[in-house]
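We now fix the convention by which a protein and its fold are recorded. The integers have meaning only within a learned vocabulary of local backbone shapes. A record is reproduced here so that you can trace the correspondence yourselves:
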Amino acid sequence: MTTPATLKASFRLLMTLALAMGLSACASMPHKAPPSSNPPPVETATAVSQTPQAERADQLMITGHYQEAAKDYIHAAADVRGQAQLDYLMKAAQASLQGQKPQVAILLANEVLRLQHGNTTLRGAALWVRAQGLMDQGQTPSAKGNLEEILTITSTPQEVRARAMGTLATLYTQEGHELTALNFLIERDSLLGGDAIAENHRRIHALLDQQSVAKLQNWQGRSGNPLVQEWIAIALITRQNPDPQQRQTAIRAWLAAHPGHPPINFSDDDATAAGASALNRAPGGICALLPSSGFYGPLSQAIAAGMETAAQLRSGPAVRILRSTGNPSYTAVLFERGVREGCKIFVGPWLPQDINAVAAVRKPGDPPVIALGTASDVRQPGLYTLSLSRDVAARQIATQSYAAGYRHAYVLYPQDSSGAAIQADFITAWKHLGGDVSGVTTYLPGRSLTSEAQQLLSAPPGRHSFVFLVTAAKNANSAVTAIRQINRTVPVFSPALLHGAALPSDAQGLSGIESVDMPWIINPGQSWPQASLLLRTNLPNASDAQWRMAAFGLDAYRMAERVLDQDMSGSLNGATGVLRFAADGRIVRDMEWMKVENGRVVPLSGVPGPGA
């Protein structure tokens, strides 16, 4: 028989485990999680008489001190019994999840699942928290099982059921089971309303648009859901009828010929434009004006994926993509069309000629614009600049390093046009500040850099020196190893463009690099736990450059929200660095500085000082 003393001892053990897994008593700073990454959990069934510790925990939750709140809820649970105990444990699990401590949240949810007896509402709440925690840790197969069980519980609220179906659709798409994902998206349609239906339709269209005609034809006989069959049929009709009027006529004819099918819950606009790019058709207050042709096409696709991911995670305004063709006149036309059709803010244009074209037709009362590049002499109220150019990171290393007291730079870069451009931008900025270039050496990517490092560092670097290294992930380890064979202490600063697929498992090879352009790619949990997961669904075979642009898409969306809210104060800890508005309309992006400890990337509070 379990005694009160035994129960209390088990809670002491639970508290000890929670503390060991990171629920520190010192973690009293607020932790503001993305609003939609942890949707409202299933409410517990009973109201409890609050203990003083629980009341304090409630206040801590309100002020964003989630980890402290979780601690107090656990202590409160140890002092009560029955339903109140389970409710406090459940609140502790939810607080831990919001405080970005998924391991602790899973531990507490497991305890609730162990102790609950037939309380399906409480079980659903614990399963939801455990699923979110598992996804934050990358354990998607286990998370999927928890989400599917939630759907079998009849007491699961409609909102949570819809969220679970949407997440399952993402996970099944990621696994290559697109038809299963399509079934989940279409089934959840009846649970939604208002703007949520439009967003769900956008996802359905996007999924269908990605499939070949042959695959859609194969799917026609594989789903027993008549609504799924109807969506697939309309997608096929759309492929065969690019003209809008012919398409609408064909869709009506198909519906008339299949009277047994319940009508799809979509608007006339959906029926008219179904199957066309969902990005071009989606209503939304944030409009991205991006080049779609040539070299810029895949990069624009990545920016769009980042913006859409941010919209989904934050439950913010939908994104509408306006695709330009490289003709500045047409870009200006698209901008004016977007203004007429209700765009509240534009992200883009990107190319200098397009920025000039938009600036020429933009009126004082038109929506604000966040340009993704620079154009000489273009200054307008409401026109902001968030430059995507790789030279920004190079110039920032020069500026921040000089401000920290460095005076001598040794430059090592690859023999290609990109490396040459980046190092040239760095050297120009560095010399303008008064810095000394003590050596410049090039290398051939993919080869040993030993001789190049010896040549570069033939004169021993002093305390106020650093190496400016231009590299990609595949050359980083070789470059750092070669430098360290010559000098073990000289700092290495790099605007490296690092791919997310190989890291952080081999991050140890980057030990010695004190800065990096895209730290979120190395360790996505540092900034936005679920962004990487969702982006891999939309960009399954992304290149280094696309990952970089996707990160900018995440940040561009959030800065657009700031502009819409007229909140230009403070800074934003974004995916690409710390962003803030400058007085001249520029959006300044300060690079993250970091070090590698035991294969893990650890951000620093600022640029390492000379000799540090």
Observations:
- The first helix runs from residue 4 to 20.
- The chain has 25 helices and 15 strands.
- The CA atoms of residues 74 and 266 lie 46 Å apart.
- Residues 24-48, 271-283, 499-506 have pLDDT under 50 and may be disordered.
